[in-house]
Amino acid sequence: MKFMKLGSKPDSFQADGDNIRYVATELAIDIVINIGGVKFYLHKFPLLSKSEHLQKLVASTSDDGDEILIQEIPGGPAAFEICAKFCYGMTVTLNAYNVVAARCAAEYLEMYESVEKGNLVYKIDIFLNSSIFRSWKDSIIILQTTKSLLPWAEELKLVSHCLDSIASKACMDTTKVEWTYTYNRKKLPSENGKDPLWNGVRRPQVVPKDWWVEDLCELQIDLYKRVITTIKTKGRVSSDLIGEALIAYALRRLPGFSKGIVQSGDITKYRSLAETIVRLLPTEKGSVPCGFMLRLLRAAILLECEETERNELMRRISQQLDEVTVADLLIQSSTRETTMYNVDIVQGLVEKFVAHEQNSKNALLVDNDFQENRSPRFASDDSKVLVAKLVEGYLAEIARDPNLSLSKFVNLANTVSSFGRASHDGLYRAIDMYLKEHPGISKSERKRICRLMDCRKLSADACMHAVQNERLPLRVVVQVLFFEQIRQATLAVDNSTQELPGSIRALLPGGSHGSSRSTTNTEEDWDAVPTAEDVKALKGELAALRLGSSGSDRNLNDGAKNDVEKVAAGKLKGLVMSKIFSKLWSNKERNGEISSSDTSGSANAEETKSTPSRSRRHSVSLSEHP
């Protein structure tokens, strides 16, 4: 820390209690100055020789014995004492902690060069410009002291000089940084003595680009805002570095921020701090990690920040939603809500992502050449896939909440339904979790939530799980089996598949395709949960289907399959699938749930529509059914 000593005489100021100061001398006291209740018993000559303001006050006082009352001097009794000691020529030490107060008090007392050469105002200005403003840490200290000395510090331009000094150093080339700074967040190898030697000589210490970030965290939010704004104005610091500084400040100043909570305390103060950080965020996309902005949004919600700041955060987050993790989205609901997590916030983020992608895409379509250079590109397919997977993972987490309504689950899933995905395994996992945690939902609700899933996009493992899943409606289980058969047949028979009876196709998406069976009871049966016997039968048939597939794959790998073998494999698939559906159908017929006329009608209608070759394939399959 820089300091300056003034005067050469011994300090003979003494105190008598807390409210009396006097000079230990044989000369009689001839002036009493009252500074905020503290009385100074002094002598006129040394004071009046350097202070024009005291000259005016003494001249306006009629009696020599009257006290001179001064209430408005900046810095109070301590700053006046420094000025008084300077007048007496006593030794006084100025440093970063008291120099601003002394400068403001000297200005108030009008201790100018016009009164006496080498006066206090002149000496302090020399000290500030030659030492204090050139020191990194001293500049930060005196900026903090200016807060209690307003408006004097502002009018004397001490604040602006501090801001410029700090901002200029933060923007400086790191190779020219030669002063000390605080850097505890992540020590560099060269700083902790672990830097390897290069040809036997230790490499010179490298100053990190963010060397200034931690020291600025000492500032209160109003001063911090002015420093960051000044740094931005200079335009020599990247937006990423500004973002890093804001993250460090939030972690230091918002208790519990790193844990996603806000500890009890001065809520008004923390609210102002959070809102200011939001306003200081760089405008460049990607300059601040999306995870940090989500934690900031969580804090803004808990602190009940203004709607403007919350909407701005949501807009920024939605543009980088593909960078988010599921854990980041798990924002706790307020105590007024029944659900565990704030699903509405996530719904809003996803909707803003979709709207931003669509608006950007439309803008590019209007004038592609113009917008290519002046507008952000719309989200890539990869980004949309990442967001879709993010939503699936989030749905799987919130599905555990017993108070989560089906409409909120379905609405959020539908928001990303247009995003193409190769697999729906994540969505199936979320649906299964919801069905598990909400066993009391109705058949129609089960049907509604299962419509979110495309059975054709389930992996083999997911299909195996779905067939054994007693929580799914029987219709969904049959669809899974059908599309698994199609997939296996495609692999084994070069994309050739077989027709299924109309009664089976009626269970697939799109309706019965001409089937005459349409009774209400049958629809309810297929939307019902499968029995344990059904699940066991389906599991066995799926295993047989996989066995047939593996055998066909081995033949394909050996290169020994010919056209005759392809047809035989196709018939084998048809046989297995027909067994599955026949077994299920016969179970329901035995229970009296399906009339014989409906079944025969469906079968006859199907055979009429079938080509001779396909009819023969079905007849073989049915004749071999036990």
What key phrases describe this protein's structure?
single chain; 626 residues; mainly alpha; 29 helices; 9 strands; disordered C terminus; SKP1/BTB/POZ_sf
At a glance:
With 626 residues, the chain is mainly alpha-helical. 56% of the residues lie in helices and 5% in strands.
Question: Could you characterize the architecture of this molecule?
Answer:
- The protein is mainly alpha-helical.
- Helices cover 56% and strands 5% of the residues.
- It has helices spanning 44-48, 52-59, 76-88, 99-108, 120-130, 136-145, 152-155, 158-170, 213-216, 221-234, 239-253, 267-280, 290-302, 307-318, 326-329, 343-366, 368-374, 381-398, 406-415, 425-437, 443-450, 460-467, 474-492, 502-505, 520-527, 532-558, 563-590, 596-609, 612-623, and strands at residues 3-6, 13-15, 20-23, 31-35, 38-42, 67-70, 92-95, 197-198, 201-202.
- The chain has a five-stranded mixed beta sheet, covered by helices on one side. Strands 1-7 form a two-stranded antiparallel ribbon. Strands 8-9 form a two-stranded antiparallel sheet.
